[in-house]
Specification:
By secondary structure, this protein is α+β, with helices and mostly antiparallel strands. Helix content is about 35%, strand content about 20%.
């Protein structure tokens, strides 16, 4: 007879096991229902719902009048399909209809057919369709010739004003553009992205089995905020005229690029800001694929050695310290030996003009003369260099001006307290070699020279929405009014004393002054990486003022990497010289901005110049 197989102890053990398992399951269930409830509910909602951000209307950009639209947003249509909902034969039929509606052929037509042939739940077939094309697609859906097709509105940024040259839009470098994701790139569009874009509308809606939103279930989580409109300081008529001027100079001089900026020296408002080559902001994708460097704005984002326009900056510490007065006689010997005879500085024409006043050293742009003055700024090369460097920093070089566009750079100025300068370094610095600046920095520095000595804040935005933005000049007077008046007279002498400049710079009836600059260009790749100056290729600059009885506007122009004809040492000719371009731009400015002339004054004859 078999014995009993049951056991009280065994049953008790099994009961404990089952109770433990049940308790564990209960605790786990309680954990899910209480502790993990919110996380699990969120995960469930994420599987069955979808959060969608709908961009708000992007603000419109106007010119200074508040009436001319420079940038606005319009709706274009995105065409999409769900090919997996169709049979292969039906996909081919739909593709044929769409190819006809869109007017496609060749590789573009085949690309659309390939997208529809793929067994995928979603594919974008085309973008930027206008209303007329979208309506033909809707008709096809109504008639049944199209199926599994979607049309979604997409805001597209448009730049309606044509620029000053073919295939460009007005103020392209200044404005920038907006990419496919709605983000501003470059210029004002990038700098004021948050202001222009506003806040998106956020909705949550359930999804069906095909992951499509169920409209009836949509709930608004965030209502969104429309972007603010912006008005710029730019004058549309002047901007167009300046773009035409820089394009004409670029073509005539066969330059790499030509730039110009017009600024109010008392308020910092930018009236015009132009460079050629430019681009069509409506077709930015083509530029991005072919030449993205064209997006970079040379007025604020590219540095260069400015040459003799910096002689006016050297004049600041020289006059302040009493080393010279405008009438102090300086011996221009044509060449000066430095650093114990190891280095030399030449005047551009390699000729000596002898003893001449300091203001004529500047007017006739004598390198040797300004070098002699720079060496006297202190008791040593180091002390002289520190004083010159301080003048650079004070006038805004070596740091961004703070202009309200994206991508501004600081420039390059070597600090003599960090690495000692030799005499040749001080000499080069005194006439604008060995230092790298931007045109906007030059415009701001010259504004301080002519406005009584205040460093202004350059800006291109005049108002946001209904709020006017009128930033006052920086509360920092960097020059005395007396020194400013002296510098104004010295700049006036440049264009009245030297007939080579006078004949192509003065504007009859107006108060004009300024300074030229011609600089060699260093090529670090030359001589197997050792570097050398480019052969007969120069940067040409002019910064000056124009007004009725006093400076009213400051104009800075740059002709980048042009190859002049050479009439002799220092005698360089371009079809359009920098000071001629200044005159054209300045004339356009006083005309467009309605600045009346002074009564005509006859100019006195002067001797033949050396450039």
């Amino acid at each position: 007879m078999l014995g009993r197989t049951d056991s009280r102890r065994r049953l008790l053990f099994l009961l404990v096991v089952f109770v433990a398992i049940a308790a564990s399951l209960g605790l786990r269930l309680a954990w899910w229902q209480v502790v993990e409830q919110e996380r699990l509910a969120t995960a469930a909602r994420q599987q069955t719902t979808r959060t969608v951000e709908i961009p708000s209307r992007r603000g419109t950009i106007f010119d200074r009048s508040g009436t001319v639209v420079l940038a606005s947003s319009v709706d274009r249509w995105r065409l999409s399909a769900s090919p997996d909902q169709l049979t292969p034969a039906r996909r081919a039929e739909v593709a044929d209809v769409l190819v006809r509606i869109l007017g496609l052929e060749g590789t573009t037509a085949q690309a659309l057919r390939d997208k529809l042939a793929a067994d995928v739940p979603y594919a974008v077939l085309a973008r930027d369709l206008d209303d007329a094309v979208a309506e033909r697609i809707r008709t096809g859906l109504d008639q049944g010739t199209l199926a599994a097709i979607g049309l979604d509105a997409e805001p597209t940024r448009m730049y309606p004003q044509a620029g000053g040259a073919k295939d460009t839009t007005l103020a392209a470098h200044l404005l920038g553009f907006v990419n496919r994701e709605g983000t501003g790139q470059y210029g004002v569009e990038a700098r004021y992205q948050d202001v222009l874009s506003g806040l998106p509308k956020v909705i949550v809606a359930r999804k069906d089995a095909s992951s499509n939103l169920i409209p009836e279930s949509a709930q608004v989580v965030e209502p969104g905020v429309a972007g603010s409109d912006i008005s710029l300081t730019i004058d549309t008529g002047l901007q167009l005229a300046i773009e035409q001027e820089v394009f004409a100079a670029w073509a005539a001089d066969a330059a790499q690029s030509v730039s110009a900026v017009v600024i109010d020296p008392y308020t910092g408002e930018i009236y015009a800001h132009a460079t050629y080559p430019s681009y069509d902001a409506n077709d930015y994708r083509k530029i991005a694929a072919e030449d993205p460097a064209r997006f970079v704005d040379p007025v604020v984002s590219t540095v260069y050695e400015p040459g003799s326009v910096f002689k006016m900056v050297t004049a600041i510490p020289a006059l302040e310290s009493g080393v010279v007065t405008p009438g102090t006689r300086v011996n221009d010997t044509g060449v000066i030996r430095l650093d114990g005879g190891r280095t030399r500085v030449y005047d551009s024409d390699r000729k000596a003009m002898g003893w001449m006043s300091f203001e004529d050293v500047v007017a006739y742009s004598r390198n040797v003369g300004v070098t002699r003055v720079a060496l006297k700024l202190g008791d040593s090369v180091r002390e002289s260099a520190v004083k010159l460097h301080e003048a650079w920093l004070r006038t805004g070089f070596g740091r961004p001006t703070g202009i309200d566009v994206a991508g501004e750079v600081a420039g390059i100025v070597n600090d003599p307290t960090v690495s000692d300068w030799r005499q040749i370094d001080l000499a080069n610095a005194s006439f604008g070699q060995g230092v790298a600046v931007t045109p906007i920095q030059l415009a701001v520095a010259y504004s301080a020279m002519v406005n009584g000595g205040t460093l202004v804040q350059p800006h291109v935005v005049r108002s946001i929405g209904s709020e006017d933005l009128a930033p006052a000049p920086q509360a920092r007077h960097i020059l005395t009014p007396q020194l400013s008046s002296t510098l104004v007279r010295m700049m006036r002498r440049v264009v009245t004393e030297v007939d080579f400049y006078r004949d192509r710079t003065l504007v009859p009836g107006y108060f004009v002054g300024g300074k030229t600059g011609t600089a060699q260009i260093w090529d670090p790749t030359a001589r197997g990486g050792k570097g050398d100056w480019k052969d007969n290729v120069f940067n040409f600059s002019f910064v000056g003022y124009i007004g009725k009885e006093a400076p009213r506007l400051v104009v800075a122009v740059r002709i980048n990497e042009a190859r002049p004809s050479v009439r002799g040492f220092g005698a360089l000719d371009l079809p359009v010289m920098s000071f001629e371009l200044f005159r054209r731009v300045a004339t356009d400015a006083i005309t467009m901005l309605d600045i009346p002339p002074d009564p005509p004054v006859a100019a006195e004859p002067s001797p033949s110049p050396d450039q």
